Amino acid sequence: MQDELTLKALGIFVEVARTGSVTSAAARLGLAQSVVSRQVAALERLIGGALFYRNGRGVALTSLAGQLLGQAVPLLDGATELLDTARGHAGHVSGVVTIGLVPAVSPALSSALLAEIGTRYPGIRLRIVEGYSGDIEARLSQGEIDLGVVNRYRAAGRNSYRRLFETPLMLVGRRERLAERCRELGLGPGPLATRQLARFPLVLPVPPNAIRTLLDDLATRQKFSLTVVMDAGSSVVVKRIMADHMAFSVLPYHAVAEELASGLMDARPLGERAMRQSVVLAASSLRPFTQAARMVAQCIPELVERFLADGTWRR
């Protein structure tokens, strides 16, 4: 039986409280569900009271747990910072850094990060999660991940941001089909007006999504309707539909850099200034900014500049 309070037990308690589920907490911590349940039960015995109400959807905090949570989080953060400082003075930076990446940057950036961090800071282990900007922003705001590379079109929210680069959005499609459709519509070379998007069958991200919101807002303001033939929750699906069908999408260059370079896809720029995307590095305001996270955060802009310099990505 546990007879003393440990940081491990507190960490498990905080994760269960944040997720509202023993199963989800176990998955995030990489522990067996039975281990998490035993730790929670031991902590409840130690403090002499219940921490959670069990229900069909998971668990809910008791009033006691609510009071403890407010003290447990800064205690754990302080312990993390203390250990981080000690390791830094010993000349050894280590720890797990969880990074959320949007699909457009994930393949190139995750591979380059593994090589760069593995060489410079072998004690750091990267954990990469992929998702659209809204998902990553939510996980940052909930303190589930340390850093995120996301797309922005409007003012920043609660998290800390650093702009990495800005890039135009383009109408993208399979090369021969895009050329064929432009000929049918009598569209000459050069940027397309946003209103012309109404004349192209589009496969777009499932809302809510930043690009989708931007396009829907522009269509509403300019009084035209988008012809959406499919909502897709995956960039892999978007690319496959464009490859197999007379369908197009609105994407930044780096999202289809390989397909454009191979000649499979082609793109037409959109004329409106509003059709530009800022790619930013965000840090969670709810997680301690460890030395390991700081080193990774310094490395990401360096790698982005390298991609822009060698033409892998474009402004």
UniProtKB/TrEMBL annotation:
Does this UniProt record's set of keywords contain Transcription? yes
Kindly indicate whether the keyword Transcription belongs to this entry. Answer: yes
Keywords in UniProt for this one? Activator, DNA-binding, Transcription, Transcription regulation
Q: Please give the SUPFAM superfamilies that the UniProt record associates with this protein.
A: Periplasmic binding protein-like II, Winged helix' DNA-binding domain
Report domain HTH lysR-type positions.
5-62
Which GO-annotated molecular functions does the record name? DNA binding; DNA-binding transcription factor activity
GO biological process annotation, one example: regulation of DNA-templated transcription initiation
Q: Which family does the record assign? A: Belongs to the LysR transcriptional regulatory family.
Name of this chain's protein: LysR family transcriptional regulator
Q: Which organism is it from?
A: Cupriavidus necator (Alcaligenes eutrophus)
